[in-house]
Amino acid sequence: MPALLTVRLMRPEDLQAIAEIQAQCYPPEMNEPPGLLAARLAACPDTAWVAVDATDRPGAYLVAYRTLLGKVSSLGAAFEHHAQPDGLYLHDLAIGRALRGQGVAQTLVSHAREQASRWALAGLALVSVNDTVAFWRGQGFEVAHVSPEGQAALGTYWGTAVYMRA
């Protein structure tokens, strides 16, 4: 990660920058509306992080929540930390144009991995979209088997969606 960037918890005042980063990374139909972004942050404020520059402006983010490994969330489902979690679900990792190719994604994933370890969680999970399986494999994730309910949840995503664990 560039020397002038740090990772910190996301704050409500970051949501406009998060929406801008999201718009740089996804087609319009995959952008989450501001109200949903705010609700996700309110539900899980301790598992949403941003990479910020010297002016404290976010240039990338990672939003996650504590869950059960093997449980696949449908696209647009509400966030809520599971009462007895064994995993950290990485919902959305997005890197703004200005920071791409600088190792910021790896830094944010490493930060999430450290937090999961601190919370004694067994691992990380996510749904890979936009042909990112190879990227996630490079981060130590592998494609994982899911239940029929999980397959139905994967069907709510745009394009090909793959459940992965690390």
Automatic annotation (TrEMBL):
GO terms for molecular function: N-acetyltransferase activity. InterPro entries: Acyl_CoA_acyltransferase, GNAT_dom, SNAT-like. This is GNAT family N-acetyltransferase. Gene3D superfamilies: 3.40.630.30. Keywords: Acyltransferase, Transferase. Pfam families: Acetyltransf_1 (PF00583). The keyword Transferase applies. Residues 5-166 form the N-acetyltransferase domain. It comes from the Bacteria.
